[in-house]
Design goal:
Residues 17-205 form the Alpha-carbonic anhydrase domain. By secondary structure, the protein is mainly beta. The chain has 4 helices and 13 strands. Helix content is 10%, strand content 29%. The strands form 3 sheets. Strands 1, 4, 5, 6, 7, 8, 11 and 12 form an 8-stranded mixed β-sheet that branches. The longest helix is centred in the C-terminal third of the chain and has 7 residues, at 163-169. It is globular.
Length: 205
């Protein structure tokens, strides 16, 4: 259930002008690590995202068990951050559980085009569901989109929407923003694990 508490207008947006996705800009992806000291890992880190996923770099296992998801209908607010649209959950209660640790769903946002690539293919859109523990540990669930002209019949809106709000939703947030996807980063010998449940493995044979 979504609540349009903010009109998606640039002058009402929570615009983050500290960085951008323009490769020619001094605030673009190759310079993120220079913008703030606490962002230095963007340039120097060896475990950066996104990455290119291939069958050769993925290890299949089933030891982690099922990913436990607990999502129910809840209120959220659309926020224009300038470089993307974010869904902020007003009273986080949905969560995922991984390896016995519970992560609360804090916010969701989109990247266009998708950031991660699979076997050389880049999808049209990528959805990030950002979860956190009280101590600040983060787990992000990413969903890749195949863009379609077909409307989604499952979205619901609480309250009313004016024609002006609809018009703003149907137009780009910033006309000079062509993409908000970070370039693929080096894998640096990291191991990518695919959690394939035993039942799913058996079904393949």
């Amino acid at each position: 259930m979504f609540s349009l508490e903010r009109i998606l207008r640039r002058d009402a947006a929570e615009i983050h002008d500290e960085f951008n996705y323009d490769m020619r800009s001094n605030k673009g992806p190759i310079h993120w690590g220079e913008v703030k000291p606490e962002w230095s890992q963007c340039n120097n880190g060896s475990m950066q995202s996104p990455i290119h996923l291939t069958n050769k770099t993925i290890q299949t296992l089933s030891a982690l068990g099922p990913l436990q998801l607990n999502y129910t209908k809840t209120n959220a607010t659309f926020v224009n951050r300038g470089h993307d649209i974010m869904l902020r959950f007003n009273a986080p209660k949905n969560y995922l559980k991984l390896n016995g640790t519970q992560y609360l769903l804090k916010q969701c946002h989109w990247h266009s085009p998708a950031e991660h690539t699979m076997d050389g293919k880049r999808f049209g859109l990528e959805f990030h569901m950002v979860h956190q523990t009280p101590s600040g540990q983060t787990a992000v669930l990413a969903i890749l989109y195949r863009v379609s002209e077909k409307a989604d019949a499952f979205l619901e809106l609480e309250g009313s929407v004016t024609r002006e709000q609809l018009r703003l939703l149907q137009h780009p947030l910033r006309h000079d923003s062509k993409a908000n996807a970070r370039p693929v980063q080096p894998l640096n010998n990291r191991l990518v694990q695919l959690n394939l449940l035993k039942d799913m493995v058996n079904d393949k044979h």
